[in-house]
């Protein structure tokens, strides 16, 4: 059995991999190398989750995976949760929490050295409020129908083939690989009508449980914070992310990539929604030293309006600040413009995130894990 195990927990709408698309793109390799440079060997486990289920249910699934992957036989455990995954970890480690029968949760907690959150909405996100509106609920219902009916699967399959063909035709306009090309290569050309295909399983999970929608609102997290407590002996740290307010930039080159233009428009919308703090549930203001750290690292002033396109930056603070990344919500898990490979920049924020910045982010995580000894 492994002496040391690091569990990676995905966020809301999260998965381990669908087709060739991985949630934590290249994180395992970068983190493993960073740990080895510090003399630490660890088994790194990418966890599955219930994409939109309630946080206690997601935490229960995390507990089961820790047990299945030998966590109770390891000498030490470390958890790294991205987005909602960081909340799952906090619930799992809360003293006295009842998410299962027996004492497995306590046994896991006693072995845990670090709990690291990455771009986690510890104080909620205004975006969650959108999913409780009529429009947001309609979107989830559409996903449900597509997942659970043969006609719906046929519709997605036909659309996938059309998009994949569009990606090929798009290469006549520009030889630069964009999000549409990578989506087609990594996922769309692999989808099968068979209901056992991972895509349908994933959409089916969304259809079955959407409990986290309410819990991630600022109002829901207010109750969460009143019930969830940090555990003594566990080192809690956070990686926070933010981007400047996006600007509309149309160049001759960008006009050749209509998929990128559409994604940039979507990002501006998401960023604008996340920039609206709740008037009655404000984020806790950071200490003066933390404020200086954030401002210096990001090169702009952090206010309640600043966010990474999904989660307000001040909502991401919990425990020690391990690293501050000028990045959007998905940059930090490997989905950024310059990443290359099978990934794509699903949130083209213009943050300018680089491979060096990605390495620095996960070096900071490795340093926190190594420092727990």
Would you tell me the overall average pLDDT? 81
Shape: globular
Number of strands: 8
Percentage of residues in helical conformation: 40-55%
Q: Which radius of gyration do the C-alpha atoms yield? A: 20 Å
Order of helices and strands: EEEHEHEHHEHHHHHHHEHHEH
> Spans of 5+ residues with little confidence (pLDDT < 50)?
146-175, 178-189
The largest sheet has its strands arranged as 4-1-5-6-7-8
State the helix count: 14
Fold and architecture overview:
With 373 residues, the protein is of the alpha/beta class. The strands form two sheets. It has a six-stranded parallel beta sheet with strand order 4-1-5-6-7-8, sandwiched between helices. Strand 2 and strand 3 form a beta hairpin. The chain is built from 14 helices and eight strands. Helix 1 packs across helix 14.
In short:
The chain contains 14 helices and 8 strands. With 373 residues, the protein is an alpha/beta fold. The strands form 2 sheets. It has a 6-stranded parallel sheet with strand order 4-1-5-6-7-8, sandwiched between helices. It has a two-stranded antiparallel ribbon with strand order 2-3.
Q: Which properties best describe this structure?
A:
alpha/beta, 373 residues, six-stranded parallel β-sheet, two-stranded antiparallel ribbon
Describe how the helices and strands are arranged.
Layout: E1 4-9, E2 17-18, E3 21-22, H1 27-37, E4 43-46, H2 55-68, E5 76-82, H3 84-93, H4 104-111, E6 112-118, H5 126-131, H6 134-148, H7 150-170, H8 179-186, H9 198-208, H10 212-215, H11 218-227, E7 235-242, H12 258-274, H13 288-298, E8 320-326, H14 355-371
Helix pairs in contact: 1-14, 2-3, 6-7, 6-9, 7-8
